[in-house]
Amino acid sequence: MLLFDAMIGFLGEIMFKKGIKFSHKNLDEVDILPRQRTDEVQINWK
């Protein structure tokens, strides 16, 4: 589980450095798919 937590932290760091941020007001509107595979997610910051 430690590796998974590190991956989440690393992704958060990348998003923060690229300016992708969520305000506390928008968190209710975030679509969360807990069973979505990370290799199936389209990324747009590369």
Provide an overview of this structure.
The protein has 46 residues and is mainly α. It has one helix at residues 2-17. The chain is globular. It starts with a helix and ends in a 29-residue tail after the last helix.
Which terms summarize this structure?
mainly alpha
Helix and strand layout, with pairings?
Layout: H1 2-17
What's the gist of this structure?
This protein is 35% helix and 0% strand.
Largest beta-sheet characterization: none
What is the N-to-C order of secondary-structure elements (H for helix, E for strand)?
H
Low-confidence spans: none
What structural class do the secondary elements suggest? mainly alpha
Terminal-residue CA separation: 27 Å
Radius of gyration: 12 Å
Number of domains: 1
Q: Roughly what is the average pLDDT, rounded to an integer?
A: 77
Figure out the total of helices.
1
Helix content: 25-40%
Shape: globular
